[in-house]
């Protein structure tokens, strides 16, 4: 089944993540950015997301969202029971890069778990960085 990765965030974060990911690894037609712009009504945003799903009826979707409980997350709640939709909250650039470079190796459910793990793995404190350098 064909797949789309949807970045659903507040403001221009989705577009910035998409552009930065493509700058690093090249263009990917299977990435879409849907940002909630300032002044946009939550219902209008939800309709925009729904249009994406309707535009690609034969696809499965990995939806990467910025924060739990925000409008992008709330707009996707109705799709959580769909078997062709997986959601990961807490998107970051490390997660995006790993997802786009490795998505063909995973089924949708596995890709969501992989995305979560890669997002968490990309987070480090100064002490963790220093300890990792000391081990080398």
Main beta sheet: 4 strands, parallel
Indicate the CATH topology: Rossmann fold
Strand order of the largest sheet: 2-1-3-4
Low-confidence stretches are: none
How many helical elements?
A: 6
Instruction: Return the CATH class.
Output: Alpha Beta
Q: How large is the radius of gyration? A: 16 Å
Portion in beta strands: 15-25%
Oligomer category = single chain
Task: State the helical fraction.
Answer: 40-55%
For the termini, the CA-CA separation is 42 Å
Structure summary, number of beta strands: 4
Order of helices and strands: EHEHEHEHHH
Specify the CATH architecture: 3-Layer(aba) Sandwich
- CATH homology superfamily name: Phosphotransferase system, mannose-type IIA component
Structural class: alpha/beta
How many independent structural domains?
1
Protein name: PTS sugar transporter subunit IIA
Main location: cytoplasm
Domain PTS EIIA type-4: 2-123
GO molecular function: kinase activity
Architecture blueprint of SSEs:
Blueprint: E1 2-10, H1 13-25, E2 31-36, H2 42-55, E3 59-65, H3 71-76, E4 85-89, H4 93-102, H5 108-121, H6 126-135
Parallel strand pairs: 1-2, 1-3, 3-4
